[in-house]
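Duplicate of earlier report; Succinate dehydrogenase [ubiquinone] iron-sulfur subunit, mitochondrial input re-posted below.
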Amino acid sequence: MIVPRRLSKIFTQSTRTFTIVNRIQEKISSFLSSEVIEKPKPPKLIDIIGTLKNINYRYDYPQNLTKEQKEHMKRFDVFRYDPMSSADPPHFVSYYIDLDECGPMFLDALIKIKDEIDSTLTFRRSCREGICGSCSMNIDGRHNLACIAAIPKNNLEKSFIAPLTSMNVLRDLVVDMSNFYNQYKVIQPHLKRKTLKQPNEKEYHQSIEERAKIDGLYECVLCLSCSSSCPSYWWHSNEYLGPAILQQAFRWVIDSRDEYKEERLEMLGGDMKLDECFQVGVCSLACPKGLDPRKSTEELQALYKEYERKKARGERTIQI
Ligand code: SF4
Ligand code: FES
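Output:
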């Protein structure tokens, strides 16, 4: 029998609809007969310990060394982490170096590892003289500049190299300094004048005594070792300026050539600036340049109090 075309189409569509409805019914009945899904349970302590075992673990980099060869070399445990790779949790990799074939500083060891053993190791460095501040990291538990930190000669003691504490790691030993540099901008770290130079004036002069006031301040290399050691900075690093920046603020406030002292002090008042320093002093212990940011902040706090007193009396000028 020849079925008319239109009738055949209607028949095919009805058959398809019937099949779909049948499948939906099957799904619903299988869902209703399935077990009730339980809420996920909180992890047990044993699970947490298991997870931690996979973080901060250590392994020897494959250098094809025998046990005897390793005994004559120094072991460097270096922190490795790539936050962009979920398959690469934070861990330590041990590299062995013959100190007779390496320069005397930790930066020499890192450069030797990168050049000769593992080119994927990432760290910052520039001057190799302790003046650019870019190679700051934690070495054997202390913040330091790798280029001026001498390697202990005892082969039996391993050394440990990690990024600055409390900082976000971009890769291996490189931390994110953007927040720190933004905070540095806030204090306007440059000479500011209200009076312009006379036509025949070339420099802004200072007496020997005035110049001596910025000794112990201008040497700061902005390595962040002090701020990243400061408990107040750990808790409020987004808001609190921290010892490195406050020391630089002090440097410009007491520079005899600068004419914006009151404005600078006005800007420094408040919770997350001067008031957040409780004079703990770890910053000064951490400074690899031997500076004393705790004392600078203390002196800046005293200047600010004097400024506030004078402001309350209607006097706007402070003598430094
Ligand atoms: S005060 Fe010292 S530790 Fe702090 S940033 Fe300057 S050089 Fe580095
Ligand atoms: S490389 Fe410049 S301070 Fe270390």
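The chain has two domains: 49-175, 178-192+207-312.

Merging into the original ticket.
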